[in-house]
Amino acid sequence: MKTLILHPSDRSTDFLSIIYANLRNKTVIKGGITKSELNRLIESHDRILMLGHGAPFGLLNSGQFPGAGLFIVDGSMATVLKNKSNCMYIWCYADKFVEENGLIGLCTGMFISEASEAGYYGFKNIGADLIEQSNKGFAEIISKYLDEPIEIVYQKLLNEYGLLVRPNSIARFNHQRLHLIC
Predict the structure, then answer these.
(1) Partners of 49 in the β-ladder
(2) Which terminus of the chain is less hemmed in, N or C, by CB atoms within 10 Å?
(3) Total number of domains in the chain
(4) pLDDT tens digits, one per residue of 50-93
């Protein structure tokens, strides 16, 4: 299976690289291509992983993709993504993007991965260790099961990441916002 990983360069999302670090037969794109080049890459790969910061409208460009505008993945990509059944959309509010565009795949809602996001959502005195534990646990679990069907990845993620819920309030928040949209 050929996997395309779209992970715009951004130090604050480097922890997500754990997900695909040991994956074989992958193409990793961190920047430097146009939306039309990305469309062609999506068409030629079996599985697409899109990781980083985002909003309900798509995956943020983060200034890495010339001429792409604010989002490198947006509604203009929906047609090509609809032909893919094994996608992961891992960014804040990716679930809204997936639903709005009639797509399927594993996706996240709002996902706290930084102290500023935790503060915005009312978490007080959260140590960096809780956020790091949540981030690392999330990425490592997906990595372990990445070669399984998407439904299995989702189930294993719910079960194993769920073990962090009791001792880690950030993981609890994120766990409640994991979705498999079919």
Answers:
(1) 5, 88
(2) C
(3) 1
(4) 999 999 999 999 899 999 999 999 999 999 999 998 999 999 99
- Does residue 82 contact residue 99 with C-beta atoms inside 8 Å? no
Contact 100, 56 (CB under 8 A): yes
For 177, what's the count of Cα atoms within 13 Å in the CB-facing half-sphere? 20
Strand order in the sheet with 54-55: 54-55, 58-60, 71-73
Pairing of strands 47-51, 26-29: unpaired
Question: What are the pLDDT digits (tens) for 130-162?
Answer: 999 999 999 999 999 999 999 999 999 999 999
Half-sphere exposure of 96 (CA within 13 A, CB side): 13
40 residue type, one letter: R
- Which CATH number is 169's domain given? 3.40.50
Q: For residue 128, count other CB atoms closer than 10 A to its CB.
A: 10
Q: How far apart are CA 153 and CA 176, in angstroms?
A: 16
